[in-house]
């Protein structure tokens, strides 16, 4: 994904780097317009391990600079710019402060979004086909047990037995995700080429798709455990 590097001040026409918030020529707050990404906006490297203290510090510093209260007597254009930048800042902060949305956002800005609402997001990842098949068999068996009058203890035990291999897959998945995240951050640190980064991004995207499906499988078990009615 090509990221713009320059922005133009709508007040004086001067140019400045994309992630500067106030015009170097006239000093006025810049309209959001074209922008870089959440990481750069908050002064962070594009890494998956985020320094939470630095994130909080930069967020609070920028919040004070952009807060609409400071632009109460400014021109309409400046008030609008402060609202735009404050809103974008809040979105950036909410996305980057948690690991899952941070990873999904990284994949998005790197041009490799993971799923969404398309057909691909509903397909079973090949690596999970066996678990899905076995779980569906287990769920059918549990429904049959309940229909035949099995006690709650009996069919709960069968569901918990079905849960164990899915939980084991989730644990293995999280370990692999941590490993790949560390690989990505190391590539960023040494400014690796796009060709070097792509295999790691591809593997991360596949893991996100798997994670979503694993969560769906566990949610299916929880639905069966929920009280009827």
Quick structural overview:
By secondary structure, the chain is mainly α. It has helices at residues 38-41, 52-66, 76-96, 99-109, 129-147, 152-189, 194-225, and strands at 6-8, 15-17.
What does this structure look like?
It is built from 7 helices and 2 strands. The protein is mostly helical and 229 residues long. The protein has 2 domains: 6-97, Helix Hairpins (Orthogonal Bundle); 124-225. Helix 2 (52-66) packs antiparallel against helix 3 (76-96) and helix 6 (152-189) packs antiparallel against helix 7 (194-225).
Secondary structure: number of strands: 2
Gross morphology = elongated
- The quaternary state of the protein chains shown equals single chain
**Helical coverage, percent range:** 55-70%
Q: Give the uncertain stretches in residue-range form.
A: 117-121
Overall number of domains: 2
| Overall radius of gyration | 24 Å
- The secondary structure category is mainly alpha
Strand residue percentage: under 5%
> What spatial order of strands do you see in the largest sheet?
1-2
Calculate the terminal CA-CA distance, rounded to whole Å: 49 Å
Mean pLDDT: 87
């Amino acid at each position: 994904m090509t990221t713009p590097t320059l922005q133009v001040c709508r007040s004086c026409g001067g140019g400045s780097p994309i992630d500067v918030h106030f015009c170097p020529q006239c000093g006025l707050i810049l309209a959001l317009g074209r922008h870089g990404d959440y990481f750069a906006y908050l002064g962070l490297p594009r890494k998956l391990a985020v320094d939470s203290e630095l994130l909080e510090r930069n967020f609070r510093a920028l919040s004070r600079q952009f807060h609409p209260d400071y632009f109460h007597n400014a021109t309409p254009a400046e008030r609008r710019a402060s609202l735009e930048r404050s809103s974008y800042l809040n979105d950036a902060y909410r996305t980057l402060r948690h690991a899952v949305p941070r990873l999904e956002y990284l994949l998005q800005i790197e041009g490799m979004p993971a799923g969404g609402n398309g057909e691909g997001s509903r397909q079973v990842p090949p690596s999970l086909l066996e678990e899905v098949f076995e779980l569906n068999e287990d769920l059918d068996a549990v429904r049959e047990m309940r229909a035949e009058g099995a006690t709650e203890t009996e069919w709960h035990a069968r569901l918990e037995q079905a849960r164990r291999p899915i939980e084991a897959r989730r644990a293995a998945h999280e370990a692999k995700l941590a490993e790949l995240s560390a690989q990505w951050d190391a590539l960023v640190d040494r400014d690796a080429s796009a060709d070097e980064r792509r295999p790691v991004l591809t593997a991360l995207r596949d893991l996100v798709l798997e994670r979503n499906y694993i969560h769906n499988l566990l949610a299916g078990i929880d639905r069966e455990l929920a009280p009827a009615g």
